[in-house]
């Protein structure tokens, strides 16, 4: 019922408003986004809520059995929970030595935000905010620039491939580039999933999920690489591989996003140009032309009589100015008749009037 009223309101709003193409597209994007959010919320609710309730009940049962079996007070059990939770990040070794700090800085710059380790001191939190304010724009520009270079490289490869295959059109289209970057992104994610599945002991599906969440900068933090067996200190090669995966993968994703942004900007520019041309045509069509005579007469650019004319009657919509040579004394059989049958163009020629353009 709520969704039906929501859509009815949107439809009524659209029918009552007259908007430009850009406004219609923006409103359509907002409506589609909120509709997509509603659909996503409904699907996640149906898939996860029941399992969440069962898991909570199971954990509460374990907690009660543990307290009863070992005769632990609620305060002591709470202290154990804090110790276990706080000790979890240290399984990977020191998080704030250079290797761990470099991994954290990369995550901040890439806006992934796993949440596996966070600054605790006031100085660390303050520096993290200042570092992010400079690093995030720098990272966005870098990834965007690398994405543009990748698109350029892909366009060269596509053109050469089309020439080799003797295609009729050898230029690389936007669709070709989107397919190329999409295939490259798929290769990176599937390959990365195999690597992380081997090193982290995850299933291939969980590794694929981790790679996707990482390269889309969602970064839930439920799966984080380099957090087991002192990997940050004992496996420098694996650390380097993880960092290369994040940086190069984000660059490829940026290439795909760059194409989408360029396409949207092109559509916006085309619509703006079209609207400007329509406005110019409309202004030109309605711009009046006046004759400086004793009785001022105004015509628009289609030759229709506008106002203050002695030659208009109930058929004034048919009155027009002939553009042929009949004003020079030669009658044209093709031009539209004047509203006043006694009017002759030669009378205008003989009356020393001047033609000027009226201001709108």
TrEMBL record:
Keyword Transmembrane helix part of the UniProt annotation: yes
Lineage: Eukaryota, Metazoa, Ecdysozoa, Arthropoda, Hexapoda
Keyword Magnesium attributed: no
Transmembrane segments: 26-44, 96-114, 126-146, 177-196, 208-226, 238-264
Gene source species: Glossina fuscipes
Pfam families named in the record: Ion_trans_2
Protein's UniProt name: Two pore potassium channel protein sup-9
Broad class of the protein's primary localization: membrane
Family statement: Belongs to the two pore domain potassium channel (TC 1.A.1.8) family.
GO cellular component, one term: plasma membrane
Domain Potassium channel: 94-150, 186-261
GO aspect biological process, one term: stabilization of membrane potential
Highest taxon listed in the record's lineage: Eukaryota
UniProt topology in membrane: Multi-pass membrane protein
Keyword set, alphabetical order: Ion channel, Ion transport, Membrane, Potassium, Potassium channel, Potassium transport, Transmembrane, Transmembrane helix, Transport
InterPro entries with a match to the protein in the record: 2pore_dom_K_chnl, 2pore_dom_K_chnl_TASK, K_chnl_dom
Subcellular location(s) of the protein: Membrane
GO molecular function: outward rectifier potassium channel activity; potassium ion leak channel activity
PANTHER family from the UniProt entry: IP11374P, POTASSIUM CHANNEL, SUBFAMILY K
Gene3D superfamilies recorded: 1.10.287.70
């Amino acid at each position: 019922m709520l969704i039906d009223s929501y859509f009815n309101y949107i439809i009524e709003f659209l029918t009552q408003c007259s908007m430009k193409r850009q406004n219609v597209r923006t409103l359509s994007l907002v409506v589609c986004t909120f509709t997509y959010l509603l659909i996503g919320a409904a699907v996640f609710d149906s898939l996860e809520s029941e399992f969440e309730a069962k898991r909570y009940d199971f954990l509460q049962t374990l907690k009660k059995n543990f307290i009863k079996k070992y005769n632990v007070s609620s305060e002591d059990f709470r202290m154990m929970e804090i110790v276990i939770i706080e000790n979890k990040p240290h399984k990977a070794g020191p998080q704030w030595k250079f290797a761990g700090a470099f991994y954290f800085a990369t995550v901040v710059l890439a806006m992934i935000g796993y949440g596996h380790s966070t600054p605790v001191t006031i100085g660390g939190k303050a520096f993290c905010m200042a570092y992010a304010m400079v690093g995030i724009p720098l990272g966005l520009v870098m990834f965007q620039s690398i994405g543009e270079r990748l698109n350029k490289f892909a366009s060269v490869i596509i053109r050469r491939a089309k020439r080799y295959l003797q295609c009729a059109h050898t230029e690389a289209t936007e669709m070709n580039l989107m397919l190329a970057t999409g295939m490259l992104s798929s290769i990176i994610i599937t390959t990365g999933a195999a690597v992380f599945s081997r090193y982290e002991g995850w299933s291939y599906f969980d590794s694929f999920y981790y790679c996707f969440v990482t390269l889309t900068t969602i970064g839930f933090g439920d799966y984080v690489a380099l957090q087991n067996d002192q990997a940050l200190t004992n496996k420098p090669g694996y650390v380097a591989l993880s960092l290369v995966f994040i940086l190069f993968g984000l660059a490829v994703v940026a290439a795909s996003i760059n194409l989408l942004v360029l396409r949207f900007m092109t559509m916006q520019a085309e619509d703006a140009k079209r609207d400007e041309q329509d406005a110019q045509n409309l202004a030109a069509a309605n711009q009046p032309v006046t004759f400086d005579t004793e009785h001022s007469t105004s015509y628009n650019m289609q030759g229709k009589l506008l106002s203050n004319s002695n030659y208009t009657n109930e058929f004034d919509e048919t009155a027009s100015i002939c553009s042929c040579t009949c004003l020079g004394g030669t009658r044209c059989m093709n031009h539209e008749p004047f509203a006043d049958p006694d009017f002759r163009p030669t009378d205008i020629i003989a009356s020393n009037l001047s033609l000027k353009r009226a201001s709108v």
